[in-house]
Specification:
By secondary structure, the chain is α/β, with parallel strands linked by helices. It is built from 9 helices and 9 strands.
Length: 252
Amino acid sequence: MNESLAPGERVVRCLLGQSVDHIPFGIGVGWAPWFQTVARWKEESGIASLDVPSYFGYEPSFALPSHHAGIYPGFEKKVIEETEETITYRDERGITQCQRRDYASMPLFLDYPVRTRDDWERLKAERLDPAAPGRINQDWPAFRDRLASSGEAVQVGNFPYGVFGTPRDLMGVEPLLTGLYEQPDLIRDMMNHLTTLWISLWERIAEHVQIDHIHIWEDMSGKNGSLISPALVEEFMMPCYDRIAEFGRRAG
Protein backbone atom coordinates (compact mmCIF):
# COMPACT_ATOMS: atom_id res chain seq x y z
CA MET A 1 0.00 0.00 0.00
CA ASN A 2 1.49 3.33 -1.12
CA GLU A 3 -1.20 5.90 -0.32
CA SER A 4 -0.94 7.70 3.01
CA LEU A 5 -3.57 6.75 5.57
CA ALA A 6 -5.13 8.86 8.30
CA PRO A 7 -3.82 7.83 11.74
CA GLY A 8 -7.10 6.32 12.84
CA GLU A 9 -7.57 4.33 9.66
CA ARG A 10 -3.96 3.15 9.89
CA VAL A 11 -4.29 1.82 13.42
CA VAL A 12 -7.62 0.11 12.72
CA ARG A 13 -6.29 -1.54 9.57
CA CYS A 14 -3.15 -2.65 11.41
CA LEU A 15 -5.15 -4.20 14.25
CA LEU A 16 -7.29 -6.03 11.69
CA GLY A 17 -4.19 -7.46 10.01
CA GLN A 18 -4.76 -5.46 6.83
CA SER A 19 -2.16 -3.68 4.71
CA VAL A 20 -0.96 -0.26 5.90
CA ASP A 21 1.42 2.39 4.59
CA HIS A 22 3.53 1.92 7.73
CA ILE A 23 3.17 0.36 11.16
CA PRO A 24 1.65 2.90 13.56
CA PHE A 25 3.87 3.97 16.43
CA GLY A 26 2.29 4.61 19.80
CA ILE A 27 -0.90 2.54 20.00
CA GLY A 28 -2.36 2.89 23.48
CA VAL A 29 -0.19 5.86 24.42
CA GLY A 30 -2.61 6.75 27.19
CA TRP A 31 -0.41 4.50 29.32
CA ALA A 32 2.45 6.91 29.98
CA PRO A 33 5.75 5.87 31.55
CA TRP A 34 5.81 5.82 35.36
CA PHE A 35 5.77 9.47 36.45
CA GLN A 36 9.08 9.14 38.29
CA THR A 37 10.66 7.93 35.04
CA VAL A 38 9.39 11.05 33.27
CA ALA A 39 10.68 13.24 36.10
CA ARG A 40 14.12 11.66 35.77
CA TRP A 41 14.08 12.09 31.97
CA LYS A 42 13.25 15.77 32.43
CA GLU A 43 16.08 16.25 34.93
CA GLU A 44 18.71 14.37 32.92
CA SER A 45 17.71 15.81 29.53
CA GLY A 46 17.25 19.36 30.72
CA ILE A 47 13.88 19.48 28.93
CA ALA A 48 11.64 20.74 31.71
CA SER A 49 8.56 20.74 29.49
CA LEU A 50 9.18 17.24 28.08
CA ASP A 51 5.98 15.78 26.59
CA VAL A 52 6.65 12.09 26.04
CA PRO A 53 4.19 11.35 23.19
CA SER A 54 5.23 14.34 21.07
CA TYR A 55 8.97 13.98 21.85
CA PHE A 56 9.06 10.36 20.73
CA GLY A 57 6.78 10.95 17.78
CA TYR A 58 3.79 8.88 18.87
CA GLU A 59 1.02 8.96 16.29
CA PRO A 60 -2.54 9.80 17.28
CA SER A 61 -4.76 6.74 17.24
CA PHE A 62 -7.99 6.79 19.22
CA ALA A 63 -10.15 9.68 20.39
CA LEU A 64 -12.44 9.04 23.36
CA PRO A 65 -15.71 10.96 23.70
CA SER A 66 -16.10 12.49 27.12
CA HIS A 67 -18.47 10.36 29.21
CA HIS A 68 -18.76 8.72 32.63
CA ALA A 69 -18.85 4.92 32.30
CA GLY A 70 -18.59 3.96 35.97
CA ILE A 71 -19.47 5.31 39.41
CA TYR A 72 -21.39 8.54 38.80
CA PRO A 73 -21.79 10.72 40.69
CA GLY A 74 -18.53 9.78 42.35
CA PHE A 75 -18.08 9.35 46.07
CA GLU A 76 -16.69 12.32 47.96
CA LYS A 77 -12.97 11.80 48.40
CA LYS A 78 -12.30 11.39 52.12
CA VAL A 79 -8.95 11.34 53.92
CA ILE A 80 -8.99 8.79 56.73
CA GLU A 81 -5.42 8.80 58.07
CA GLU A 82 -2.12 10.51 57.27
CA THR A 83 1.44 9.66 58.28
CA GLU A 84 4.77 11.07 57.17
CA GLU A 85 5.00 8.43 54.44
CA THR A 86 1.42 7.46 53.56
CA ILE A 87 -2.11 8.75 53.19
CA THR A 88 -5.18 6.54 53.60
CA TYR A 89 -8.30 7.75 51.82
CA ARG A 90 -11.52 6.75 50.09
CA ASP A 91 -11.48 7.66 46.41
CA GLU A 92 -14.24 8.66 43.99
CA ARG A 93 -15.00 4.98 43.25
CA GLY A 94 -15.59 4.26 46.92
CA ILE A 95 -12.36 2.28 47.29
CA THR A 96 -10.40 2.78 50.52
CA GLN A 97 -6.66 2.57 49.96
CA CYS A 98 -3.36 3.42 51.58
CA GLN A 99 -1.04 5.24 49.20
CA ARG A 100 2.59 6.31 49.54
CA ARG A 101 2.91 10.06 49.46
CA ASP A 102 5.48 9.80 46.66
CA TYR A 103 3.16 7.46 44.68
CA ALA A 104 6.17 5.20 44.06
CA SER A 105 4.21 1.94 44.20
CA MET A 106 0.77 0.43 43.85
CA PRO A 107 -1.55 1.39 46.71
CA LEU A 108 -2.65 -1.05 49.38
CA PHE A 109 -6.38 -1.61 48.87
CA LEU A 110 -8.26 -1.86 52.16
CA ASP A 111 -12.01 -1.76 51.48
CA TYR A 112 -14.51 -1.66 48.62
CA PRO A 113 -18.02 -0.24 48.11
CA VAL A 114 -19.74 -3.62 47.58
CA ARG A 115 -19.72 -6.16 50.40
CA THR A 116 -23.31 -7.37 50.30
CA ARG A 117 -26.24 -7.63 47.90
CA ASP A 118 -27.78 -4.58 49.60
CA ASP A 119 -24.59 -2.59 48.95
CA TRP A 120 -24.82 -3.50 45.28
CA GLU A 121 -28.50 -2.64 44.95
CA ARG A 122 -27.91 0.75 46.56
CA LEU A 123 -24.87 1.46 44.39
CA LYS A 124 -26.71 0.37 41.26
CA ALA A 125 -29.63 2.69 42.00
CA GLU A 126 -27.65 5.70 43.20
CA ARG A 127 -24.42 5.71 41.19
CA LEU A 128 -24.74 3.30 38.25
CA ASP A 129 -27.88 4.62 36.56
CA PRO A 130 -27.34 4.68 32.77
CA ALA A 131 -29.80 7.58 32.46
CA ALA A 132 -28.17 9.78 35.11
CA PRO A 133 -27.96 13.35 33.77
CA GLY A 134 -24.43 14.37 32.88
CA ARG A 135 -23.06 10.92 32.01
CA ILE A 136 -22.23 12.23 28.52
CA ASN A 137 -20.82 15.75 28.44
CA GLN A 138 -19.22 15.89 25.00
CA ASP A 139 -19.34 18.97 22.76
CA TRP A 140 -20.15 17.01 19.60
CA PRO A 141 -19.44 19.71 16.96
CA ALA A 142 -16.03 20.34 18.55
CA PHE A 143 -15.35 16.60 18.75
CA ARG A 144 -16.20 16.08 15.09
CA ASP A 145 -13.96 19.02 14.17
CA ARG A 146 -11.14 17.37 16.13
CA LEU A 147 -11.62 14.10 14.23
CA ALA A 148 -11.63 15.89 10.90
CA SER A 149 -8.37 17.61 11.80
CA SER A 150 -6.52 14.74 13.50
CA GLY A 151 -7.79 11.75 11.53
CA GLU A 152 -8.20 9.78 14.77
CA ALA A 153 -10.44 6.75 15.11
CA VAL A 154 -13.16 6.80 17.77
CA GLN A 155 -12.88 4.54 20.81
CA VAL A 156 -15.46 3.73 23.45
CA GLY A 157 -14.54 1.91 26.62
CA ASN A 158 -11.38 2.56 28.58
CA PHE A 159 -9.57 1.87 31.86
CA PRO A 160 -10.92 0.81 34.37
CA TYR A 161 -14.04 -0.67 32.77
CA GLY A 162 -14.41 -4.37 32.04
CA VAL A 163 -16.81 -7.24 32.62
CA PHE A 164 -14.44 -8.75 35.19
CA GLY A 165 -12.28 -5.71 35.88
CA THR A 166 -14.99 -3.37 37.15
CA PRO A 167 -16.66 -5.86 39.55
CA ARG A 168 -13.15 -6.58 40.80
CA ASP A 169 -12.76 -2.90 41.64
CA LEU A 170 -16.18 -2.80 43.28
CA MET A 171 -15.68 -5.90 45.47
CA GLY A 172 -11.98 -6.73 45.63
CA VAL A 173 -10.27 -9.71 44.03
CA GLU A 174 -10.95 -12.42 46.62
CA PRO A 175 -14.63 -11.55 47.25
CA LEU A 176 -15.24 -11.54 43.50
CA LEU A 177 -13.54 -14.90 42.99
CA THR A 178 -15.38 -16.57 45.87
CA GLY A 179 -18.57 -14.83 44.78
CA LEU A 180 -18.49 -16.74 41.49
CA TYR A 181 -19.28 -19.82 43.58
CA GLU A 182 -21.05 -18.46 46.65
CA GLN A 183 -23.09 -15.60 45.11
CA PRO A 184 -23.27 -16.34 41.37
CA ASP A 185 -26.54 -14.45 40.87
CA LEU A 186 -24.99 -11.31 42.37
CA ILE A 187 -21.92 -11.54 40.12
CA ARG A 188 -24.07 -12.09 37.03
CA ASP A 189 -26.23 -9.11 37.91
CA MET A 190 -23.17 -6.90 38.37
CA MET A 191 -21.68 -7.94 35.04
CA ASN A 192 -24.98 -7.66 33.19
CA HIS A 193 -25.90 -4.27 34.65
CA LEU A 194 -22.50 -2.80 33.85
CA THR A 195 -22.76 -4.11 30.29
CA THR A 196 -26.19 -2.52 29.97
CA LEU A 197 -24.77 0.76 31.26
CA TRP A 198 -21.92 0.78 28.75
CA ILE A 199 -23.99 -0.21 25.75
CA SER A 200 -26.60 2.43 26.56
CA LEU A 201 -23.86 5.09 26.54
CA TRP A 202 -22.26 3.76 23.38
CA GLU A 203 -25.61 3.77 21.58
CA ARG A 204 -26.00 7.45 22.39
CA ILE A 205 -22.44 8.16 21.25
CA ALA A 206 -23.06 6.27 17.99
CA GLU A 207 -25.82 8.77 17.19
CA HIS A 208 -23.15 11.45 16.83
CA VAL A 209 -19.99 9.73 15.50
CA GLN A 210 -18.89 6.47 13.93
CA ILE A 211 -17.34 4.17 16.54
CA ASP A 212 -14.23 2.32 15.37
CA HIS A 213 -12.92 0.55 18.46
CA ILE A 214 -14.33 -0.92 21.70
CA HIS A 215 -11.86 -1.22 24.55
CA ILE A 216 -12.61 -3.65 27.40
CA TRP A 217 -10.28 -3.52 30.39
CA GLU A 218 -9.85 -6.88 32.13
CA ASP A 219 -7.20 -6.95 34.85
CA MET A 220 -7.63 -10.64 35.61
CA SER A 221 -4.28 -12.39 35.55
CA GLY A 222 -1.88 -13.46 38.27
CA LYS A 223 1.71 -14.64 38.16
CA ASN A 224 0.54 -18.17 37.29
CA GLY A 225 -2.05 -17.25 34.67
CA SER A 226 -5.71 -16.26 34.54
CA LEU A 227 -7.47 -15.75 37.87
CA ILE A 228 -10.48 -17.70 36.62
CA SER A 229 -10.90 -20.74 34.41
CA PRO A 230 -12.01 -20.74 30.77
CA ALA A 231 -15.23 -22.41 31.92
CA LEU A 232 -16.02 -19.48 34.26
CA VAL A 233 -15.16 -16.99 31.55
CA GLU A 234 -17.60 -18.80 29.27
CA GLU A 235 -20.34 -18.98 31.90
CA PHE A 236 -20.17 -15.49 33.40
CA MET A 237 -18.39 -13.19 30.97
CA MET A 238 -19.15 -14.42 27.47
CA PRO A 239 -22.88 -13.55 27.57
CA CYS A 240 -21.81 -9.94 28.21
CA TYR A 241 -19.19 -10.08 25.46
CA ASP A 242 -21.84 -11.43 23.10
CA ARG A 243 -24.01 -8.40 23.85
CA ILE A 244 -21.07 -6.07 23.26
CA ALA A 245 -20.27 -7.82 19.96
CA GLU A 246 -23.90 -7.50 18.87
CA PHE A 247 -23.78 -3.78 19.64
CA GLY A 248 -20.63 -3.55 17.54
CA ARG A 249 -22.40 -5.18 14.61
CA ARG A 250 -25.38 -2.86 14.94
CA ALA A 251 -23.10 0.17 15.10
CA GLY A 252 -21.11 -0.89 12.04
